[in-house]
Amino acid sequence: MASPAALPPLPFNPSRVRSYLLRLPLFTRLAVLVIIVFWLLELQTVWSVVQWGSLIPDEMGLSSMYRLNTYPLIHTGFFHTFINLLAVTPLLERFEAEHGTLTAIALFTGPLSTFPAGIYLLIEKFVLHSNTAVVGASVWAFLLLGSESIRTFKSNPYFILGKYKIPTWTSPLFACVLVWILVANTSFLGHLCSVLIGYLLGLGYLKVFVPPEKILRWIEGKLNLLGRLPHYVSVDQKTYGRYGVLPTAGAPAGERGTPMSFLGDDQMAAAIRKLRNNPHFLFVRLPYILSLLFIIAGVVWLFLLPLDEYSRKNYISENALLPGQVHAYFSGSEQHIFRGYKSELEGLLGTDSGEEVQRPKSEERTPVISDKIQSILKATGLKVATQNYEYTSSGITHQGENIYAIIQAPRGDATEAIVLVAAWETVDGELNLNGVTLALTLARYFKRWSLWSKDIIFVFPPDSKSGTQAWIDAYHDMQRASVQPLPLKSGALQGGLVIEYPLNHRFQNIHIVYDGVNGQLPNLDLFNTAVSIAGGQMGIGTRLQEMWEHDGSYEKRLQTMLRGMVKQGFGYATGAHSSFMPYHIDAITLQTQGIGWQDEMALGRTVEGLTRSLNNLLEHLHQSFFFYLLMQTHRFVSIGTYLPSAMLIAGNFTIMAIALWLRTGYSTNPFSDTAPGQGEKPDGMSQTASKDAGNISTTQNPSNKVIERQLALPLTLVIGLHLAGLIPLHIFNNTSHANYTSATYASVVVNTLLPLLLAGVLSQYRTTIQQIHLIKSVSLLLLGLFLSALATLNFSLSFMIGLLCAPLSFVNRITADTTPILRYALSIAGLFFLNILSPPVVLLAGCAYFGVSIETVLTEAAFGWDVWGMWTQVIIWCVWWPAWIVGAALVGVSLF
Amino acid sequence: MPVNRRKAAVLGGALILRLLLLLLFPSLPDLLTGRVEVSTPVTSFKRLQEGLFLYNRNVSPYDGGLFHQAPLLLPIFSLLPNAQEYPFPTALFYSLLDLLNANALITISDSAQAVSGRLYASIRKEITWDGAVIAAWFLFNPFTIATCLGRSTAVFTSTGILYALSAAVQGQSLNSMLALGLASYLSIYPALLFIPLVLLCYDRQAQRSNTTPSTALFVVKHFAVFLLSVAGLLGVSLLIVGDFARLVSATYGFHLLVPDLTPNIGLWWYFFIEIFDSFRDFFLGVFWLHLTAYAGSLTVRLRRQPLFVITSLLGIFAVFKPYPSIADASLYFALLPLYRHIFPLMRYTFFSVSALLYASLLGPAFYHLWIYAGSGNANFFYAITLVWSLGLSLIIADTIFAALRDEWELENPEKRGKTVKQV
């Protein structure tokens, strides 16, 4: 100790405690371990360990004899465990060090547990006629104290306190009484019994039960326990014991010859040292295990989310919203107006009222109808304007005319506005006559109120896909040339509501659609307000994610969440509201669903309530969550809870990349100086490593552990592939819709051949193993990088891509030393398996599963790319595809 | 000059790549110009356009408080056609500037000053890349490309610094001082490089003439040249702007007092947004003192390798400058490959490169969440700028460690390749 002289030495030296703990012998360790395990087991609530293993006099029978042995190992709580461990560990250690591990095991699992128990049972049951259960290692503590006190008595018979001589053997009894008085719930009788047995042990009456030393020694010698078990204490006290001969220099160093040679060596430290000496495990096996664990943990995490413990109840965070606090007056005479408007519009459809729904395409919004809508709005006294737009995508032209009208706020300054959208066609292509009529009626109704502090804009796009996009782009002057600018504008949009009522009968529930483009979501407060107004004030049920029946069970919650994730992951627009999201305008669609007794007035009142709530807003919706997964109308998981799931999946790639990087940085040399006792070198690694050495480090100083990484080829290849992803991206977004099917099949073929081609080229140019590993490392590093960045933007997409790419962590070039047949078989199987998971094949499989044609999907995707600014394709072609190609090429290399 | 085929290939490839990017993605320059990572208030091309507009209409460019760059840029850019209508000439101009920078880098690399100077020759001096590779590292660095396409005026400063270095290693110490004067005139902070640069010039001078001229006289002479060049440039600027006080307060005052706290990848903006106004002056002083402190101390510690001091200082500036952008990082990464020989001694390459990669992907993502999606906040972006700075400073610290270790191994040949512990 080099502590300065001025400072007093520490009374307590932690390093000594540490070395003491590190030197604990085997049986003591086991006992401590078992006690801790039992304590941990007790933490769960299903199976009461105490009830199972404690010594209860009335429960004793032939079949429950095990209790005689288990009770010292079981404790009732943390403090009980802790105090008993503190008391018993030094005593046990002392006993074991003196008598050897085998003796300790024989005695403590046998007589030294059962005898005190037997005496206790006899007295408790037959003398006292009561039934107190006992548990705990204190029985051993007192027993050993008893035997120690006898020993002390032999050498040092009395304490002398003044004139009185107190025999030392009484000290355990004092302790017994003291513990009984000081600590609640201790069994005085139990302790007394164990002290009694301890006296007997100390006096040597129990020697009969100790197995003969000869036999123990024979067992020890036969099984070579000394050599095999760490921390084992020999029976043979003469040679190896604490009081015997100390290990001398003659003992073979490094061998586990003596139990005491493990001074200062913990099992943990030993494990780490073992790991360090085993680079094959550390660099080759461990990353695979870790990666797999990460993936499993990520998936399990996701499946835990619907549980009550992980999801939270929805709540309204923004107090200004005051949902459902005002009376909705939209009823009565407004219904007549609604009917009037509806019949006017119906009349223009040129069809007899009734079954419009059955006729799909006949109700396009003709100019006559547009004029009618405009004239109704003008008659109400609103400013009306129109906007023409045209989009071309995949050779299909989408065009139309938006009509919109603005109610200027009587109490506002036109700096803020709310949007109500009623598209002529719903997202599913149905005629939204009731919705449009309702919006017209509401426009007339709202105009008469004087309480609006924000402008209200009514937008009537001809369809739900492109109309609102054109309108909102033009509202922010971001429109393209084919879209007209808006002649009439208002202030910053605070929120949007889309009304869809395509049914021709009364409805049952409101279905709230909230997903935006690229997985962006509206503020959770808007959703909550809708649920609370519809459910709490109007008594209309709310549904989400097309889950018409939802009983709040785990399965239903999971299903809702997964549906939400799929929609979010694909990132397409799920309704007219989706276009608002990129401009940071929170919007939802209210759809009617089911047959019930709610009429258009009820929907109108809900919209009125919602508009009133939005009207109350003092600042943009910002309080509540923007990142959430909904399980149910009243439960959600926030980003902090669900994000680790995708991050774990992304992390698995990074781990593998780091491991491969480390692996490529070392030549064979560190592997060869492993400890001599480590056994033979792992074959695969030494193969690759020696090959590495042959190819690369020829110019290298053999003593130099670090070898140079040849990065040029891996970097160029991986970055080139990522850039090459732009080609399919361009093709799939810009050809005519008729070609999509053939293009998909062509890309399947290309995907099968390209890795083989790459593999051929790679092996042609004598790519080294190191470079192969580096290619994989760089590719996985980029994949992990992209996916973790993506997880913050679109969790679901990152999660899905991560899962689909998961095999890429594990595929690798099959080492050349495998027999050719096996190698070919394995690599062909691997390639086949990877091809099943290639982007176009997954697309085909998905289309087949959902029963939609590829052309529809890809046309929609291209439309999303062109009109909505959706970038799911970029992720697929520039993140997933390059990583996949690299993975497949690496498997392919083993073919050549 | 004999045409080196590899160099020509690298330079030509880089030029073609830049023009190709411009052709394929015509909206890319405007996108990059608007990014906070590329354009800072003192290098923004948009602000330059604003100044140019005012200048062409005979209004003081500093009216309106948007333009804070050196006035000499204005006549240069008014010669070019309007970048809004004809983006191609400007892009070509910037690409050529990049090639010029690369050429200077090649000169620096060919002089081999990085591996063996007057006072010091590394034991690993065979492990180097030749000029073409170093030019390639610079020209194909995504940060350089982004800076070039984003038309940040930091490129001019880089040119000044790189030519100062290339002149210094060739022994043309007066040219070197003139170039440094230009760089300092453009954006003040390169003046901090004066001490190591003058030492580099001195070393080269001594190496050539095999005599040691008087150090004090040498330094004073060169300092005078440096000051004169700055003064001359300021004099020309006066002809353009007229109002000297206005000029200084709008450019150098803006650099020094950091009034614009637009987010950037540095560490200043968030700190000065958060700080109470009464402490602002104090911390401004502390931050600047911190930045300047490195120049002297590194020069003393690494006296034998002045070029390495300059490289490390450029890295430190990229982290601790008031308005850093990826242009500064790209300048640092341009000089770093000269020290190929100490790469094997670095310890955290993978970690710090990964940190930089993560930061450069997550930075735009979080900025998007904050500004556009509205679902994040300023802390998201700031956290990522911290990671970026961490990654950069790790690389800087690691290279300095490696350089010191390299020096140490020269002095202690018996300890080569062995693990040592400093106590």
Automatic annotation (TrEMBL), chain A:
Residues 685-701 have a biased composition (Polar residues). Its main location: membrane. This is Gaa1-domain-containing protein. Pfam families: Gaa1 (PF04114), Rhomboid (PF01694). Residues 672-701 are annotated as: Disordered. Residues 64-206 form the Peptidase S54 rhomboid domain. It is a multi-pass membrane protein. The keyword Transcription does not apply. The chain crosses the membrane at residues 20-41, 73-92, 104-122, 128-145, 166-183, 189-210, 282-304, 642-662, 711-731, 743-762, 828-854, 874-895. It comes from Aspergillus lucknowensis. It is found in: Membrane. PANTHER family: GLYCOSYLPHOSPHATIDYLINOSITOL ANCHOR ATTACHMENT 1 PROTEIN. Keywords: Membrane, Transmembrane, Transmembrane helix. The keyword Methyltransferase does not apply. It comes from the Eukaryota. SUPFAM superfamilies: Rhomboid-like.
Automatic annotation (TrEMBL), chain B:
It holds the Pfam family PIG-U. It is a multi-pass membrane protein. The chain crosses the membrane at residues 177-202, 223-247, 267-295, 307-325, 345-367, 379-404. Pathway: Glycolipid biosynthesis; glycosylphosphatidylinositol-anchor biosynthesis. Residues 1-34 form the signal peptide. It is found in: Endoplasmic reticulum membrane. Keywords: Endoplasmic reticulum, GPI-anchor biosynthesis, Membrane, Signal, Transmembrane, Transmembrane helix. Belongs to the PIGU family. This is GPI transamidase subunit PIG-U. It comes from Aspergillus lucknowensis.
